[in-house]
Prior knowledge:
Layout: H1 3-26, E1 33-37, E2 40-43, H2 44-60, E3 65-68, E4 80-88, H3 90-94, E5 101-108, E6 111-119, E7 124-129, E8 134-136, E9 139-140, E10 153-156, H4 165-178, E11 181-183, H5 188-196, E12 202-206, H6 210-222, E13 226-228, H7 236-239, E14 241-245, H8 248-262
Parallel strand pairs: 3-4, 10-11, 10-12
Antiparallel strand pairs: 1-2, 4-5, 5-6, 6-7, 7-8, 8-9, 12-14, 13-14
Amino acid sequence: xxxNFLVREVIRLADEVGGFIRHEAxxxxxxxxxxxxxxxxxxxxxxxxxxxxxARLSELLPxxxxxxxxxxxxxxxxxxxxxxDPLDGTTNFVHGLPIYAISIxxxxxxxxxxxxxYEVSSKECFHAVRGGGAFLNDKPxxxxxxxxxxxxxxxxxxxxxxxxxxxxxxxxxAFLLKTHGFxxxxxxxxxxxxxxxGRFEAFYEKNLNPWDIAAGVLLVEEAGGRVSxxxxxxxxxxxxxxxxxxxxxxxxELLAVIYDNFGNL
Length: 265
């Protein structure tokens, strides 16, 4: 398996499918949107994008399974799998807000081997191969050198499941008082890519799925950052909670705020 060949092919594929998404965005009919759950939307664009991606990746690496948001393909438990979000930020797309991305990763078990996040509207393509660094449009990127939460710009998302909403909003208030600023842009894949590029100092969220974050976590790690679950463990890919940061000190301060205010959310 030539991982460098694979990542170049995935970049090419993301660019092609991104062209399809941009075309559909110009004439998108909101009536063709389905509701999977509260605040959780899916469109024909998600489904068609995933079909295109899965078809090409099946040819590219027939021995790999799939963990895909819209359910295409078959997973190989604990094995080699493509982890795909064909349109991360569907709500933004549906409302005409140009922040959404294609996220494609290849993982062996819980170890991500390659990751590509293609921000469709801007045509920014972030990619990484394990051990090979992180790149934006083929130029190397690094996480922020800021070493204090107090001067950090932090991103988050709001969980679709609202059972922890009061605690989550309380945590948001705590971070508002302890950071330089806060952003919620609606795509975990883009949030993580921006951490990798040093645009955000950190990102955290709960109730995430592996397709939301698989490519992005490798970007952050290969750009020099830290990734963990809320207890500073390594279950983040399938454990549904994530903290990512550009600097070890900021990471520890983030974890401390989570623990001090609400323990285990």
